[in-house]
């Protein structure tokens, strides 16, 4: 086994190299190895100074996140962090100058190690940061105390609450890094360390004094940050704990601040919020692993693309390609539709520009990558075509028959269908191995999820190319099976069914939306429908009715169809579930008409309307999601429960701190979820049936995540 920590002398400098692939995470053995190597260097007569450097692509990406799972109680965490804090103090107490040489990333514990060195040098592309908050914890190895001393409290608060890394030049300007090394990092760091040794210069970050006016400024920054987090981080624990730790340190000094940090870290690390966020960290990386698609499956290069259909979705998909620098043909049947599509694209970019996120030159350069066309000219040059025409089987099949003829045999043919059978398109194309679904979520240029729908004959290399492409388009690609609605919309049908029925039973649109946004969704089911368009769902329902199907078993509320018949399609028509100031406006007010329609629907179904408690709304909706998710999983349409969680977090903004619908069900406890399903069956009817997997797991005393107990905190 290769050594985790290597020790060598170069030009009278001890070079300690951390070699723990892939990201030099700080496992317990790495912590101990660093400690021992620094002690060895201090005792080594051949060494005048010490350089700490990382092997591979990065310095240190932080503590080993998996290790947090062994911290079952707050006390476990307090004990372990005591040792870590003492170790970092020993580093700072090194008698010989100790220099961190940073390339790639110094994140979390990696940055905390670097700050416990006397000096930091970095390659110009390096990044430093404290992303712990994204895992529901706070920097737990002195970061909340040392970073304010180096960078000032305001920047430290920003870095520790948004978790975003800072590039080396900015870090240098802010005082986190002492020198940027242009050439070879190792030799630059050795030269730097020698110079410090010659002057016998060391500097302990913990001893940097914070002047009274900086303390005052820092405390003001804490108050401001708390006020801002009250709006942006509602319901979360870790961002507020960061502010508490920084504030306590400013008021009471480094030593007491460090103790407070350890206590707050311990509270956070055992919280459900942190367990959920850590689960998502790994789920997001797992998702790219398809059991029967080996890592070395060949992937094609996407150099040119085409999109058929310049409506809202097609335009957004073309923008994704252009944003990634990939030239894209955008085809419509007539010039007028094409002009409308291009005008929307331009408007979208101009909105981004008005927010200062793009320059006028960047807008023009990006739009120039989109070539509008009404013909198939040039389709023989592209590596992928995405079909985004109306959700109509015949139209889509005809489109696949055409693109099957005008493209090269190795061209990938993707459909943006949100529900229809990919295998039918595959047959129509004449090249089934090249066909799959690329289901984007609205707005397609914004939402991070890409459902990659595997057809019966989809070639493995088409899947692996799609996963690689998703990354390039800045999306999270999740491979799902070809069932009706795939994973996202199949489950959404149950979510919406419950939302509609709760309305008929007596809850209001506003109450249901409020319960879901309080839970953490960016928008409730009705607000979401008004954005997506009530007409979209209605057309799909009507199509299904025509073929004798429905999206979810159970009673279908008539209220959404009544709105559709009235031409109330949502924001775009100025009225839907809410009333809006004008078509396209987002300013909404409630509309008594909805209550009236719900009353009428309830009367027809013989339902006596009643006050519905907030708890029941959340329980019904999340139970419906988990129960259908269990079916999806059991039937093999999702590879792992974590894939479903990722679909919901990135496709619908399901709150990250709940870990996704499946993880959330585990935290509620599967026995409780199952008993709710049974209770609803008794109360509402046989359309509520426990998913077989849910029953099996409860019988076995397990959760969706086998390591997780059936009830987490
Ligand atoms: C912390 O430091 C707390 C402290 O305050 C101290 C408390 C005492 N641990 O993302 P990638 C794995 S909390 C374990 O695909 P990239 C990852 O799962 C930590 N494993 O690569 C994947 O495994 P696999 C604070 C980790 O190039 C592989 O490495 N730090 C860790 O796209 C490659 O990862 C963070 O939150 C880890 N810390 O991105 C940083 N990091 O191949 C977390 C990665 O089996 N890491 N892995 O799927 C990252 O943000 C990205 O991994 C990074 C590289 C930007 C570094």
Ligands bound to this protein structure: (S)-3-Hydroxyhexanoyl-CoA
Average pLDDT figure? 95
Q: Beta-strand percentage?
A: 5-15%
Helical content stands at 40-55%
* Biggest sheet layout: 8 strands, mixed
Main-sheet strand order equals 12-11-10-13-14-15-16-17
Count of helices?
28
- Radius of gyration equals 28 Å
Low-confidence blocks of residues: 708-713
Instruction: Based on Cα principal axes, name the global outline.
Output: globular
Number of strands: 19
Structural class: alpha/beta
How far apart, in Å, are the first and last alpha carbons?
Answer: 38 Å
3D architecture notes:
This protein is α/β, with parallel strands linked by helices. The model is unreliable at 708-713 (pLDDT under 50). (S)-3-Hydroxyhexanoyl-CoA is lined by residues 22-23, 25, 58, 61-66, 81, 84, 105, 107-109, 112, 131-132, 135, 139-141, 143, 282, 285.
């Amino acid at each position: 086994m290769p050594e985790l920590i290597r020790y060598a002398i170069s030009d009278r400098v001890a070079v300690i190299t951390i070699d723990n692939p892939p990201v030099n995470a700080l496992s317990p053995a790495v912590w101990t190895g660093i400690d021992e190597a620094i002690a060895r260097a201090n005792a080594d007569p051949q060494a005048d100074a010490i350089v700490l450097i990382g092997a591979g692509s990065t310095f240190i990406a932080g503590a080993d996140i998996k290790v947090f799972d062994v911290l079952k109680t707050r006390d476990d965490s307090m004990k372990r962090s005591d040792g870590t804090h003492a170790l970092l103090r020993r580093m700072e107490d090194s008698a010989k100058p100790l220099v961190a040489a940073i390339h790639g990333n110094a994140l979390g514990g990696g940055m905390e190690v670097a700050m416990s060195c006397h000096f930091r040098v970095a390659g110009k592309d390096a990044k430093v940061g404290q992303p712990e908050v994204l895992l529901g914890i706070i920097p737990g190895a002195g970061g909340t105390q040392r970073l304010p001393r180096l960078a000032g409290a305001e920047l430290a608060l920003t870095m520790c609450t948004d978790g975003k890394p800072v590039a080396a030049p900015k870090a240098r300007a802010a005082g986190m890094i002492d020198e940027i090394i242009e050439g070879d990092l190792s030799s630059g760091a050795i030269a730097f360390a020698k110079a410090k040794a010659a002057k016998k210069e060391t500097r302990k970050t913990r001893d940097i004094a914070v002047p009274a006016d900086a303390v005052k400024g820092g405390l003001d920054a804490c108050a401001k940050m708390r006020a801002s987090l009250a709006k942006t981080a509602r319901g979360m624990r870790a961002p507020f704990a960061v502010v508490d730790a920084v504030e306590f340190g400013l008021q009471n000094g480094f030593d007491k601040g460090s103790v407070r940090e350890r206590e707050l870290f311990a509270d956070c690390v055992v919280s459900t919020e942190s367990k959920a966020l850590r689960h998502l960290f790994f789920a997001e990386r797992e998702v790219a692993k398809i059991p029967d698609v080996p890592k070395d499956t060949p992937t094609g290069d996407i150099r040119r693309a085409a999109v058929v259909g310049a409506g809202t979705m097609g335009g957004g998909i073309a923008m994704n390609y252009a944003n990634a620098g990939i030239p894209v043909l955008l085809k419509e049947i007539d010039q007028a539709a094409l002009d409308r599509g291009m005008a929307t694209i331009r408007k979208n970019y101009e909105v981004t520009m008005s927010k200062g996120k793009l320059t006028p030159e960047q807008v023009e350069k990006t739009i120039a990558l989109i070539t509008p066309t009404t013909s198939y000219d040039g389709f023989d040059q592209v590596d992928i075509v995405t079909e985004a025409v109306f959700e109509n089987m015949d139209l889509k099949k005809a489109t696949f028959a055409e693109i099957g003829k005008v493209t090269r045999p190795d061209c990938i043919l993707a459909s943006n269908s949100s529900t229809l059978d990919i295998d039918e398109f595959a047959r129509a194309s004449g090249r089934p191995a090249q066909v799959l679904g690329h289901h984007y979520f609205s707005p397609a240029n914004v939402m991070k999820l890409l459902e990659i729908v595997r057809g019966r004959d989809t070639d493995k290399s088409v899947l692996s190319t799609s996963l690689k492409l998703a990354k390039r388009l800045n999306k999270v690609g999740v491979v799902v099976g070809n069932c009706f609605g795939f994973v996202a919309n199949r489950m959404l049908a149950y979510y919406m069914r419950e939302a509609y029925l709760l309305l008929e039973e007596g809850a209001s649109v506003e109450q249901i939306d409020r319960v879901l946004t309080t839970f953490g969704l960016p928008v409730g089911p009705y607000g979401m429908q008004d954005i997506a368009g009530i007409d979209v769902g209605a057309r799909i329902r009507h199509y299904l009715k025509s073929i004798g199907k429905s999206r979810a078993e159970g009673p279908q509320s008539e209220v959404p169809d009544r709105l559709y018949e009235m031409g109330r399609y949502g924001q775009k028509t100025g009225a839907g579930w809410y009333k809006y100031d004008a078509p396209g406006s987002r300013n909404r007010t409630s509309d008594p008409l909805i209550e009236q329609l719900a009353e009428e629907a309830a009367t027809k179904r013989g339902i006596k309307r009643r006050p519905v408690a907030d708890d029941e709304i959340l329980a019904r909706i999340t139970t419906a999601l988990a129960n259908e998710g269990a079916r999806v999983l059991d039937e093999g349409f999702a590879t792992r429960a974590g894939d479903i969680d990722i679909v919901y977090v990135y496709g619908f903004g399901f709150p990250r701190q709940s870990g996704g619908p499946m993880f959330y069900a585990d935290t509620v406890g599967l026995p409780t979820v199952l008993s709710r399903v049974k209770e609803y069956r008794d109360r509402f009817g046989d359309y509520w049936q426990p998913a077989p997997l849910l029953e099996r797991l409860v019988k076995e005393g397990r959760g969706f995540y086998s390591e997780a107990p059936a009830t987490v905190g």
